[in-house]
Amino acid sequence: MEGMMKVAVMEGIGKMGYTQRPIPTPADNEVLVKLDYVGICGSDIHYYETGAIGPYVVEPPFVLGHEPGGVVVEVGKDVKHLQVGDKVALEPGKTCGHCEFCREGKYNLCPDVIFFATPPVDGVFQEYVAHEADLCFKLPENVDTMEGALIEPLAVGFHAANQGGAHAGQTVVVFGSGCIGLVSMMAAKAMGVSKTIVVDVMDKRLDKALELGADYVVNGAKEDAVDKILELTGGKGADLAIETAGTEITTNQAVHAVKKGSNIVLVGYGKTGMINVEMSLALDKEITFKTVFRYRHIYPMAIDAVASGKVNVKGIVTDIFSLDDMQNAMDKSAQDKANVVKAVVKIHE
Fold this sequence. Notes:
The chain is an alpha/beta fold. It folds into two domains: 4-138 and 318-346, Quinone Oxidoreductase, Chain A, domain 1, CATH 3.90.180.10; 156-291, NAD(P)-binding Rossmann-like Domain (Rossmann fold, 3-Layer(aba) Sandwich), CATH 3.40.50.720. The chain has helices at 42-50, 100-103, 145-163, 179-190, 203-211, 225-232, 248-257, 279-285, 299-307, 326-335, and strands at residues 4-12, 15-22, 30-39, 52-53, 56-57, 67-75, 87-90, 93-94, 114-115, 128-132, 136-138, 171-175, 195-200, 216-219, 238-243, 258-266, 288-291, 319-322, 343-346. Strands 3, 6, 7, 10, 11, 18 and 19 form a seven-stranded mixed beta sheet that branches. Strands 14-13-12-15-16-17 form a six-stranded parallel beta sheet, with helices on both faces. A two-stranded antiparallel ribbon has the order 1-2. β4 (52-53) and β5 (56-57) form a beta hairpin. The chain is globular.
């Protein structure tokens, strides 16, 4: 497909603009996808506000966005499993396939991964993208491309629940009711846990958690979260904690709130990168800490969970913006976190 496409670019901290680039031509093992929706992730907002995450520094003009869903419009000659017209969710990271981590199946740890919107690799707030066909997952008839865009954050939630060993009979407490907290809660429920408790300090986010199936919510700004969790578990504590807020307070609340021998899964990135943990209590309880970096082998599971109705992933969306409104989309997502739980960008009107 020849022609030019509209691309939203970050021109500097807090500044979005636009440019035109050629529509890419897919390689033999790629497909060209006309993008319908791209989610705005917390990492996009962090780059937008600060210009960097750790060693990854934005050099404008830079394209944000790594949560895409769309429709195949062109197929490379070696691609057999996809055809023009297929709806797809795109897994945004291409790995080397040869390092020890890829060979062990832990490809999310590949040191040479090329990941959308991780500098210097551009993301996909644009009209089209050519992407490796094996990383484009066909969506069932009853799953739309907005849901396809939300498979990426849902995959993080499933990886967190997997890392924690979530299973039937458990009570799971999730700290943080933003996008990743909500998808972690829904993933745990889809994996059969018996009770979910969600902790946050924003009522609107807690209301969204209840709407999406949380059994209990706790506003940590209005009551002692640990006391309430112990009350809700008959004094036993939770079987598993998933920490998505990335704060020292919530991490230590998790240590206090779980029973002995439990798992705590750390998902949230703190602003400083440093957290002091009450290690003596963690040792006494023989807590196992697990961490999450993206996901691996999750997309088919996540798509099936949405298709079967086990996860209402579209329910996390609070705001939809057009590609023509990217400045407002990024500003509102950054400045109104109490109300914007999850925003998506509609690429084509």
